[in-house]
Write a sequence for this structure.
């Protein structure tokens, strides 16, 4: 790992993971730059969720290394995780609590003071357009509104790194568009490094960074335009098909 990667918002080096004999990640290495959106693109089963489980400390691997903002996840776990915000693929809010209560519990878990939490929650609810719904039970919100609450929750503790695991699954078009715009704004204006796992090519923008994962391996990495160019494709859709189906053929 070089010096820049050592201090990157996220640096993954030689990471492997297996479920029993099933290898899910195979020597994965990459680092993220601050203030950039990096799309982690891979077909179903490529290993995206496994990678997220390792980066969030849910799983542990003896093979390879993860550093968040320069802190080794294994040796300085709480410092490393304190810089991380995450939106999971599955819905993780308490449905019987109000929007505000959900956020306050999380703020307390993260060690925010009452005063700081109140200020931060008000600002974030404004930002995600849910001030009016703050006293509503989450159960009464639409899927899109729930996702907005989860984005607000991920940002409560001002993370330098934001992970989103297929966050647009099941969302309406307007919320999907909002999410893609909001995530880019957070990166470009607030300097957050974003890792966005998806299998939907249309959520990726030309100037984003890209990591293509296929069968647990990184098969392409770099700015989207560069990957498209290097694959001799006309667009990302074609590049993605080539990168992933070429691999599939190799395995036949
Ligand atoms: N608990 C498990 N036990 C055994 N194999 C698993 C388990 N979880 C995942 N796998 C396998 O590991 C590989 C990677 O799965 P993973 O869920 O990380 O991929 P993914 O890219 O997130 O896919 P998806 O887009 O479908 O969520 C797949 O082959 C999957 O079948």
């Amino acid at each position: 790992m070089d010096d820049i990667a050592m201090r990157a918002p996220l640096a993954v080096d030689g990471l492997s993971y297996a479920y029993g004999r099933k290898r899910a990640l195979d020597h994965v290495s990459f680092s993220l730059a601050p203030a950039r959106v990096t799309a982690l693109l891979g077909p179903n089963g490529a290993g995206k969720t496994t990678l997220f489980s390792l980066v969030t400390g849910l799983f542990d691997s003896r093979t390879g290394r993860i550093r968040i903002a320069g802190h080794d996840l294994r040796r300085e776990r709480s410092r490393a995780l304190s810089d991380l915000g995450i939106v999971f693929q599955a819905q993780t809010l308490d449905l019987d609590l109000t929007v505000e209560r959900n956020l306050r519990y999380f703020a307390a878990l993260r060690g925010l003071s009452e005063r700081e939490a109140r200020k931060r929650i008000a600002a974030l609810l404004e930002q995600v357009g849910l001030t009016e719904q703050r006293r509503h039970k989450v159960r009464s919100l639409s899927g899109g509104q729930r996702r907005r609450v989860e984005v607000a929750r991920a940002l409560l503790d001002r993370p330098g790194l934001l992970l989103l695991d297929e966050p647009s699954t099941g969302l309406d078009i307007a919320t999907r568009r909002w999410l893609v715009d909001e995530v880019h704004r957070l990166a470009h204006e607030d300097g957050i490094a974003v890792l966005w796992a998806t299998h939907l090519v249309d959520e990726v923008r030309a100037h984003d960074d890209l990591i293509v994962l296929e069968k647990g391996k990184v098969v392409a990495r770099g700015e989207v335009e560069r990957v498209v160019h290097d694959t001799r494709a006309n667009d990302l859709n074609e590049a993605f098909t080539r990168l992933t189906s070429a691999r599939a053929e190799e395995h036949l």
Notes: Residues 19, 22, 24, 42, 44-50, 199 surround adenosine-5'-triphosphate (CB under 6 Å).
